[in-house]
Amino acid sequence: MITEDSEFLKGVKEDDNSSFKAIYEKYSRDLFVYAYNIIKEKTVCEDIIQEVFISLWAKRKTTTITSLKPYLFQAVKFQIFNHFRNNKFSREDLTRLNIIDVSMNVSQKLEYSELDQIIRDHVAKLPKRCRHIFVLSRYHHKSNKEIADELEISVQAVKNQISKALAFLRNNLQLEEVAFISLILLQ
After folding, report:
1. Which one-letter DSSP state was computed for residue 187?
2. Residue 74: which residues within 8 A CB-CB, separation 6 or more?
3. 0.85 cut: is pTM over it?
4. What domains does the chain contain, in order, with CATH numbers?
């Protein structure tokens, strides 16, 4: 089955401006809201979203994207990290953001991989339904409404399960682990 996003991506690779515009119109607002929930500065967030779409267009011939929405959210995460890396921020900000540098050296990448595995191990300990909802939210970047519709439950039930998962993870991860996890605990 060919998805709308894959058709848009095909068009972008073929220099179709209308496909690019369709992707922008479909995702820019959600990406902006996501960035704004972290940074809280409108102009910075607008710049980040603009940079993500400029990069998407510039790399259209050389980048293979299998899933557009996760790709775009990951690109925003990277730009957010760059923003904070290039500006001074406190340990409290780091803990609140739960961010890592995706352009780190090999030893840091190994450390991140270990931390990521610790988090995934803790996520695996969540009750099945809670884990499923958390994974849809944090790893597949689905909105609470999308999850509720998909699982045929209320939005409030989704929120409750995500809160339960976050509380479990916060209570079971060491402070230094929490300080470096990659945006999955971000509310």
Report:
1. -
2. none
3. no
4. 4-87 (1.10.1740.10), 93-178 (1.10.10.10)
